[in-house]
């Protein structure tokens, strides 16, 4: 049997190709390609938040700082990462575009887990179940007892733009008048003052505002229009960071930190 001798140049080229392929595979699997590694290396995590959604995220102008359930959670996440936290202002309308553009590493602040969002982003484990319900005046407690009773001519509903509240209202309200209010924090006061009749929002937020203002009433919180959970939102294709956040949330539950935050900011 006759063997063909392979020239040295061919052997060298073959070896070079093998080395390059090996390097490419190792680089693609390297932790350095993860946003988790980048966060640790730079020493801070960028957290996108709207600052207009009590009790989860609220920018307190008097002290010039963010506060709320998810603001404190973000600070704890940063501590367990061994880094600082820097908050990045966003809006509900720009929440997803800003995340995908890389303006922050994670979005936190009472964000509803939805299939539509999950298609283009990645959600953490869920926390705190809730649903859409109406915030109304206490005087109207016996008037607005269902969605059908709310969706009537002459009823005015205030809603903030770009989030799941507006999406629900647009899909389900056909007869009542809907007005868009850019600053979500203004709507409860508008309800109390009679400028609008109803704010359809997350039951947790409705309960918070009713607790703070005796003129308001959180209706149908035990019969919410939807069933949802909040979650923290990240970009897709970064399993290392997603795994860390999910494990961190599990540890927060085990240590009672999630329960403590709930009692402090919500209950």
Descriptive notes:
40% of the residues lie in helices and 24% in strands. By secondary structure, the chain is of the alpha/beta class. The strands form three sheets. Strands 1, 5, 6, 7, 8 and 14 form a six-stranded mixed sheet that branches. It has a five-stranded mixed sheet with strand order 11-10-12-9-13, with helices on both faces. The protein has a three-stranded antiparallel sheet with strand order 2-3-4. The protein is elongated, with a radius of gyration of 25 Å. About 4% of the residues have low confidence.
Question: TL;DR?
Answer:
The protein is an alpha/beta fold.
Task: Give the helices and strands, then pairings.
Elements lengths: L7 H22 L5 H8 L1 E6 L2 E2 L3 E4 L4 E3 L1 H13 L2 E6 L5 H6 L5 E7 L2 H4 L3 E2 L3 E4 L1 E6 L9 H4 L5 E4 L4 H9 L4 E4 L6 H7 L4 E5 H10 L3 E3 L9 E7 L4 H16 L2 H9 L2
Parallel strand pairs: 1-5, 1-6, 10-11, 10-12
Antiparallel strand pairs: 2-3, 3-4, 6-14, 7-14, 8-14, 9-12, 9-13
User: Beta fraction of the residues?
Assistant: 15-25%
- The CATH homologous superfamily of the largest domain is named Periplasmic binding protein-like II
Query: What's the overall average pLDDT, rounded?
Result: 90
Determine the fraction of residues in helical runs and give it as a percent range: 40-55%
Q: And the CATH topology of the largest domain?
A: D-Maltodextrin-Binding Protein, domain 2
- Based on secondary structure, the structural category is alpha/beta
Low-pLDDT segments: 23-32
Annotated CATH architecture of the largest domain: 3-Layer(aba) Sandwich
The total count of helices amounts to 11
Shape: elongated
Number of strands: 14
> How many domain units?
2
CATH class of the largest domain: Alpha Beta
Q: Which sequence of SSEs, written as H and E, runs from N to C?
A: HHEEEEHEHEHEEEHEHEHEHEEHH
Sheet with most strands: 6 strands, mixed
Determine Rg (CA atoms, Å). Answer: 25 Å
